[in-house]
Predict the structure.
Amino acid sequence: MDSSGDYTIQQLTVQELDEIVELFRGAYGHHRDADYFHWKYRLGAHGAGIMAGVRDPGGKLVAHCGGCPARFVEVSGATTREYTGQQVADVMTARAHRRVAAGAGGLFVFCLSDLIAASFERGIPFMWGVVPDGSPILHCYERHANGHTLLQLDYWKRELSPRWLRRWRNRDSGYRVHMSPAIDALDWDEFFERVASAYGLLAKRTRDYVDWRHRSRPGDPAHLFAVTRQGRLCGWSAFRQIDDRLRWGDALFDPDEPKAAAVLIEHALRHPSLRRCRVLEGWFPHRPDWWLQQLHDLGMKPAPEPQSLCAIYACDVDAAELPAADSFRERLYYTLADTDLF
C-alpha cells in the first residue's frame, strides 16, 4: 500500500466491490451493481483484472482505475503472434475530490500509475484505453510507460428511416441469421481462425471471449446475431440500444461473404426489440479495405467522434512479446466492444 499525501493508493479486492458501485454512481450518475464489476474484473475470458483505488484520509474510496486482460492476435503473412494486454476501464474520481492533486492531473493519475506498474510486474506488457483528446490521463501514460502512441477513433453512423428499411431487402441470398440458443451450435473458434488474417491485428474473438463479453454480462447482455450460409458461420455482430440509437458494438465477418453483413444488419433492424431505432452507429477503423467497402455499401458515413475520444496504447518497450506501436496504430481492427463503453 502506497501513500500520496494523506491519500492512500491500494489494489482492491472483491470485498470492496460495493464501494466501487457507490463511487461509479456518484462519478457518472447511473448505476452498475456489484455483479457487473465482479463479471468485469474477476470472470474475464482471459483472467482476472486489476482494480486500483485511492482512499481519502477517512478511508473512503474516492478514485478508481481498472484493467481487464485480453488476448490479441496479429497475423502477418505466414506468421501469427499472440499477446496479452490490459484494457483500461472505469477511470473515475468522486466529484468532491476532483480538485485534489490537480497539479498532478488528479487522483485518478495515482490509480493509473499503480495499474501500469502492477500490469508490468505481472508480465502484461501493454495496455490501451479510451481518453478525451487533451486529457491529463495522456500525460500519466507518458510518464509511467516508456512507449506510447495515440490512435484516432473512427466513428460511423447511418440515419435510419422506415421508408429506407421497407426498400432494403436481401432476399434469396442463401444466408440465415441466428440468435440464442441456435448460435450455441456454431463453431466460433474455427471461424476466428479462418478470418483473423483478413484483419491484421485484433482482439482474440473466440467462443470464450464472445460468451463472456456479449452473453454473460449481468443484467444487460448484448443482442448477438450470427449469420450462416449452408450451415457455416459467415459473420456475427453485437448490438445494444440506447434510446433511439442502435450501437453496433462488435462485428467480425468473412471477407469472402460480402453480402453477409447487410443480411445480418437488416435482420437486426427488423428485430421487435430494435425496430424503432433511428440511428445506427459504431466505431470501426478505415481498414481493411474490404471492410471499409462494406461499411460504405451499408450507407454508413464517417462523422466526428461525439465525445472527441481517442485511444492510447502504452507499453513496456523492454518486454519481449508486444505489438509494435506502429502496428497498433496502423493495423488494429477495433470496435466499441474493445473498450468499456459498450
Summary: The CA atoms of residues 157 and 281 lie 4 Å apart. The first helix runs from residue 17 to 28. The mean pLDDT is 92.
